[in-house]
Specification:
Heat Shock Protein 90; 4 strands; 39% helix; alpha+beta; globular; 3 helices
């Protein structure tokens, strides 16, 4: 999992560097690494990552092969883990999950000021 999350952060850094939007590296890296980590932990399928800058937002999406809906866990249920989507909710303007014919896409919109 660490390798997939590290690569996700690298992708954000590369994309934001090309777009001259280095201020987005921190929040977008956190959001994307949480979404990628969820695929590794829960979906166990190949994934596709998409980053799209459409000012005033950076759109982050991860498509996987699981039809299970993404939803935050109740923080009181476990002492550790289960907080990833709560972090995404805090860092993103909006986030959501949509079913696809062969899985789902989980997306988030990060403000690009």
């Amino acid at each position: 999992m660490a390798g997939a999350c590290r690569r996700a952060r690298e992708l954000v850094g590369e994309a934001c560097g090309r777009w001259n939007a280095l201020e987005l590296v921190g929040p977008a890296s956190l959001v994307l690494s949480e979404l990628v980590g969820n695929v590794v932990r829960h979906a166990h399928t190949p994934m596709q990552v998409t980053l799209t800058l459409r000012r005033p937002y950076l759109h982050v999406a991860v498509t996987d092969g699981s039809r299970s809906a993404a939803r935050p866990n109740n923080p009181g249920l476990r002492a550790e883990g289960g907080r990833g989507l709560m972090l995404v909710r805090e860092m993103a303007q909006r986030w959501g999950s949509a079913p696809l014919a062969d899985g789902k896409v989980v997306w988030a919109v990060v403000p690009a000021n």
